[in-house]
């Protein structure tokens, strides 16, 4: 009887340890995450990488009246995901010193054949951030047009659409929509 109880206790312990979800298992749908401590995949104006404000680490992206466009992220969809995805969810942390600005996080898809814009969408800070001088999580699901393929190029950047104010971006994450 004693051995039977030990066997049952051991089986219960092993069953509790084996789970389909693991805390150490990375999110299989996570396509990209960047906290701007490194800038792999991001090109263009390095002056928009700043230490003035950061949600995590030391760096974030900044646009203002002198720098209309930030560093730009480029990646082919086939490099982001081995399977076809119908879109992405963008999550990031945004900071704006004042509410009256025209800063946007822009996401687009270019056709690989000629670089022609296939679609563009974004997150307007003055709509989602809400409270100035505070880091706020922003998020949006973006569905791709049906004609995208593995060679379509995803483009993402922070844009000051002509306002005098500044905007900061940190901890950007793209997750696949299936």
Oligomerization: single chain
Overall CATH class: Mainly Beta
Whole-number mean pLDDT: 86
Low-confidence stretches: 4-23
Determine the fraction of residues in helical runs and give it as a percent range.
10-25%
The helix/strand class is mainly beta
- The H/E string reads HEEEEEHEEEHEEE
Amount of beta strand: 35-45%
Domain tally: 1
Give the secondary structure arrangement, pairings included.
Blueprint: H1 2-17, E1 30-34, E2 42-43, E3 49-50, E4 60-63, E5 69-76, H2 77-80, E6 87-95, E7 103-110, E8 117-124, H3 125-128, E9 136-143, E10 153-160, E11 167-177
Antiparallel strand pairs: 1-11, 2-5, 3-4, 4-11, 5-10, 6-9, 6-11, 7-8, 7-10
Care to give the gist of this entry?
With 178 residues, the protein is mainly beta. The protein is built from three helices and eleven strands, in the order H-E-E-E-E-E-H-E-E-E-H-E-E-E. The longest helix is centred in the first third of the chain and has 16 residues.
Task: Give structural notes.
This protein is mainly beta. The chain has one domain (29-177): Galactose-binding domain-like (Jelly Rolls, Sandwich), CATH 2.60.120. 13% of the residues lie in helices and 41% in strands. It has 3 helices and 11 strands. The chain has helices spanning 2-17, 77-80, 125-128; strands spanning 30-34, 42-43, 49-50, 60-63, 69-76, 87-95, 103-110, 117-124, 136-143, 153-160, 167-177. The strands form 2 sheets. Strands 1, 3, 4, 6, 9 and 11 form a 6-stranded antiparallel β-sheet that branches. The protein has a 5-stranded antiparallel β-sheet with strand order 2-5-10-7-8. The longest helix has 16 residues, at 2-17.
């Amino acid at each position: 009887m004693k051995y039977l109880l030990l066997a049952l206790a051991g089986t219960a312990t092993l069953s509790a340890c084996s789970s389909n979800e693991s805390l150490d298992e990375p999110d299989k749908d996570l396509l990209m995450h960047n906290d701007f401590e490194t800038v792999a995949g991001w090109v263009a104006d390095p002056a928009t990488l700043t230490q003035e404000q950061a949600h995590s680490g030391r760096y974030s992206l900044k646009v203002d009246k002198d720098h209309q466009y930030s560093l730009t992220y480029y990646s082919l969809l086939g490099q982001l995901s081995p399977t076809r995805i119908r879109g992405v969810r963008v999550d990031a942390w945004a900071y704006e010193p004042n509410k009256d600005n025209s800063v946007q996080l822009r996401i687009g898809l270019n056709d690989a054949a000629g670089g022609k814009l296939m679609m563009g969408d974004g997150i307007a800070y003055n709509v989602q951030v809400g409270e100035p001088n505070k880091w706020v999580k922003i998020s949006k699901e973006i569905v791709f047009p049906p004609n995208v393929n593995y060679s379509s190029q995803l483009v993402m950047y922070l844009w000051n659409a002509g306002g005098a104010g500044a905007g900061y971006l940190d901890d950007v994450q793209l997750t696949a929509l299936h």
